[in-house]
Write a structure and sequence with these properties.
mainly beta, five-stranded antiparallel beta sheet
Length: about 525
C-alpha cells in the first residue's frame, strides 16, 4: 500500500475562524492496477460476500467506434485480491438495473421484441459461483401501450414522464418497475413489484383523471419490507392555478399495496417548491425539498412534510430558511438572497433518524465561436460548484446547513469531479478531487478547486454533528497511479468504493470510515 500524506485539517466555525482539528479516521485498501479491454466503466453494484470479500459489478462501454456494452462481475477477497471475474456482453440497450440476492445476481432489462410487437421485461440471472446466466420473463406489454421508449437506472431521473424505470428498496429485498402507459386523456402508469428472488408481488395500474402534461411524476419509493409503493406526483390543477401566492400546483402522495391505493393531496402554501423527494421510514413518510418565496428556480431553504405511512394524514409541514452560517459560507456575510442552480444529489439517514439532504450548484454554459477559416463551433462546459448540505432532525427542524465552496468544470468526462457522500454515526462525509492547494478566498473562507479533471488529489470532508467541518487528504496525485472517479462512488455499510482510471489502467479503491 502506498504511503499516505495528510494535510492538517481546517475547521470553519461560526465566525469562519480556522484551527487545526483531529485527523479524520479512515482506512484505505487498493486492488492491483489492471487493464480492461474497454476504457470506460462504472461501478453499478457492490455487495459483501459474507466472508470479508465483496462482489463488484461494473458496466462497460465501447468508444466512439464501438457499440460494445456489458458488465464485469468481479469477486474480491478481504485484501482486495481478485478471486474470480466474468464478462457479460449485453446485446440489448434496455438494461434498467441490477439486483443481488445472496449469491445470485440478476440483470433486469426492458426491450422491444419485434417478432412479438411488444416490450418484454426479462431478468438474466446467474450464481456468482459459475456465472451461468439464464433468462426469466417478468412481464410483457403490447408496444402500443407503452408511451415512448426510454429508460433510466436506479439513480436516474424520470424527466419527460415516458418509458420505464426500476427502483430498488433500501434493504435490496424488493424492486419495482414503473412503465408510462400511452393514454391521451388520463395520466397512466403500470407498477410492478417483485421481491429479490424475482417473485411478483402485485401489479397496479395507476390512473389520474388529468392530461399527461398536467401531471409530473416526481419519484417512487419501495417500503423497507418490500410490500408497499409510495408514488409522488406534482399536479397542475385548475383550482391551484387561481392561487394568489406560491406555486400553482399541488403534490399528491399515493400509497399502493396489493389491496389498493390511497392518496393524500398537499401543497406548499404561499411558497414555491419546484421538486420534492420522498423518504419512507417505518413510522413516517417525509417529503423534503428546497423552497423559495419567488419562483421554482430559486432557493431560500428546505421544506419538510411528514405524513402517516398508513393513513397518509399530514402530521407536519415546515419551511426552514437557510441559516446565517450558511449565508456566511456562501457569500462571506449574511445576505438576504436566494440561491439558484441547485441540483439534488442525494439523501442519507442517520441511525437516529435525522435526514441529511445534499445538493450541488450545477449549471451548463454553451458558447459559440467563429473559426479562423470561417464557420462556427460550439463548446459546452458543465460547472459543478458549491456543495450544499443540510441536516433535519426527526421533528423536521433544521439542525445545520453548510455551503462548501468548490469550483470545478469540464467539457468532457465529469466522472472525476463533483462528489460522493455518505454518513457514519452523526458525521457526514464528502469525497472530492481537488487541486494542489486549497484556495483562500474573501472573509477568511476557503475554496476547493481542481487543476485538471484527470490529475487530482483525493480528499475527504467531514461535517460534524454541530455543523463544523474539516478536511483531509486521502491520496496525493503523486502517490497514485490513477485518479479516482469521485462522482461514481458506491456506498455500502461504512465503506465507499471508487474506480480509478488513466487510459486503460484501472484500480479499485476501498475507503472504510
Amino acid at each position: 500500500m502506498k504511503k499516505l500524506f495528510t494535510c492538517f485539517a481546517l475547521a470553519l466555525l461560526l465566525h469562519v475562524s480556522t484551527s487545526q482539528a483531529q485527523e479524520i479516521p479512515f482506512k484505505i485498501q487498493q486492488s492491483d492496477v489492471f487493464k480492461d479491454e474497454y476504457k470506460r466503466s462504472t461501478i453499478m453494484s457492490v455487495e459483501e460476500d459474507g466472508n470479508g470479500g465483496l462482489i463488484i459489478v461494473r458496466s462497460f462501454m465501447g468508444g466512439a467506434f464501438s457499440s460494445a456494452f456489458g458488465y464485469y462481475f468481479e469477486h474480491y477477497d478481504s485484501n482486495m485480491k481478485l478471486i474470480k471475474e466474468f464478462e457479460y456482453d449485453s446485446k440489448r440497450s434496455g438494461v434498467m438495473g441490477i439486483i443481488v440476492n445472496e449469491d445470485q445476481v440478476s440483470i433486469i432489462d426492458f426491450t422491444y421484441v419485434k417478432e412479438q410487437k411488444a416490450f418484454v421485461c426479462n431478468a438474466n440471472s446467474a450464481s456468482i459461483k459459475d456465472f451461468n446466466f439464464t433468462k426469466k420473463e417478468l412481464f410483457t406489454l403490447p408496444s402500443e401501450e407503452v408511451s415512448g421508449f426510454s429508460f433510466w437506472g436506479n439513480s436516474g431521473s424520470y424527466d419527460g414522464d415516458t418509458g420505464a424505470q426500476m427502483i430498488v428498496n433500501e434493504d435490496k429485498s424488493a424492486f419495482s418497475i414503473i412503465v408510462d402507459i400511452s393514454n391521451k386523456t388520463q395520466e397512466t402508469h403500470k407498477l410492478y413489484l417483485f421481491d429479490a428472488k424475482l417473485n411478483q408481488k402485485f401489479i397496479h395500474e395507476f390512473k389520474r383523471d388529468i392530461k399527461d402534461k398536467k401531471f409530473r411524476y416526481e419519484n417512487i419509493d419501495v417500503s423497507k419490507d418490500g410490500n408497499t409503493l409510495y408514488l409522488l406526483g406534482k399536479v397542475y390543477t385548475t383550482e391551484k392555478k387561481k392561487k394568489k401566492d406560491g406555486g400553482k400546483y399541488q403534490y399528491e402522495l399515493s400509497r399502493i399495496t396489493k389491496d389498493g391505493i390511497a392518496t393524500q393531496v398537499f401543497d406548499t402554501e404561499e411558497h414555491y417548491s419546484g421538486s420534492l423527494k420522498t423518504i419512507v421510514f417505518q413510522d413516517r413518510v417525509t417529503c423534503v425539498g428546497f423552497y423559495s418565496d419567488r419562483n421554482d428556480s430559486r432557493y431560500k431553504g428546505l421544506s419538510y412534510f411528514e405524513l402517516d405511512p398508513k393513513t397518509l394524514a399530514i402530521k407536519k409541514s415546515k419551511f426552514n430558511p437557510f441559516t446565517e452560517q450558511f449565508m456566511i459560507d456562501k457569500y462571506g456575510k449574511d445576505k438576504d438572497k436566494e440561491l439558484r442552480n441547485l441540483s439534488f444529489r442525494g439523501i442519507s439517514i442517520t441511525a437516529s433518524g435525522d435526514i441529511v439532504f445534499n445538493a450541488e450548484e450545477f449549471y451548463v454554459i454553451t458558447t459559440t465561436m467563429m473559426q479562423p477559416g470561417g464557420g462556427m463551433s460550439t463548446r459546452t462546459t458543465y460547472y459543478y460548484n458549491d456543495i450544499v448540505s443540510a441536516k433535519l432532525n426527526v421533528q423536521g427542524d433544521l439542525i445545520w446547513a453548510r455551503n462548501i465552496n468548490k469550483r470545478q468544470s469540464t467539457s468532457g468526462d465529469d466522472s472525476y469531479i463533483s462528489y460522493t457522500s455518505t454518513i457514519k454515526g452523526d458525521d457526514t462525509f464528502f469525497f472530492i478531487n481537488t487541486g494542489e492547494k486549497v484556495k483562500k478566498i474573501s472573509n477568511d473562507r476557503i475554496q476547493f478547486g481542481q487543476t485538471s479533471a484527470k490529475r487530482s488529489n483525493l480528499n475527504i470532508i467531514r461535517i460534524k454533528p454541530n455543523g463544523d467541518f474539516d478536511y483531509q487528504e486521502i491520496l496525493d496525485d503523486k502517490d497514485s497511479e490513477v485518479p479516482f472517479m469521485v462522482s461514481d462512488g458506491a456506498v455500502t455499510n461504512n465503506s465507499v468504493y471508487f474506480i480509478g482510471r488513466k487510459g486503460k489502467k484501472k484500480q479499485l479503491l476501498k475507503i472504510t470510515l
